[in-house]
Amino acid sequence: KQPPVARCKQANVRRSWSACVMAGTSGVGDGGPKACPEFFAGPFVGQAGSVVASSQVTACRLVGVLFAASWCVPCRQFVSILEEAYTEIRKEYGSQALEMVLVPREKAQNDWSDFHASMPWLSVPWGDPLINRLKEHFKIERLPHLVILDKSGSVVSANARGGSGFGFCCDPLHAFASLMRASGQELPSAQRSSTKPKGDSDDEGSDADTDDDDDDD
Hints:
Structural class: alpha/beta
Mean pLDDT: 80
Oligomer: single chain
Strand order of the largest sheet: 5-4-3-7-8
Radius of gyration: 16 Å
Helix content: 25-40%
Number of helices: 8
Distance between the termini: 31 Å
Strand content: 15-25%
Low-confidence stretches: 4-31, 198-217
Number of strands: 9
Largest sheet: 5 strands, mixed
Shape: globular
């Protein structure tokens, strides 16, 4: 099975950078909600419901807060793309470069358990009061939605889906480099010297089916 970027190029899907930004995204360093240090108090769980210390999250340079649900088709599409980006960034820059935390919007605990089991990152437990507090703080109205924070809880990107963030045909290493610059941090040393983030000319726009068909939360 080919990764999304390969499928996009094979299909000769070419979109301009501006079109990617227009597809329901606001890019990197776009302001928005104030810092949310409360987020780092957790709780967080890993696979099989194992409790994860907040220090594991705050040790990372960037943290993605992903609002998503299994009943939302664009969420499932975006999670697949984001998983590839997450894996590539951590392979390139190490496990403390980026962490993701699912904020589940599921209607049933079993649905959350199954959905989270398909992801390599952490989650806020289903039903925890933090879920609604985060939803209100970040003013989430549609799914999926990805907020990027730095380790202090400051908002680096209020909407990191598409544009210069993560999405169909967007280069994950370039996105990470852009987010690091927006956060005021230096890009960490790559663990693989052969790969460098691609420039803007190598990026292509977000796929319309993914970005235009958002479901209301």
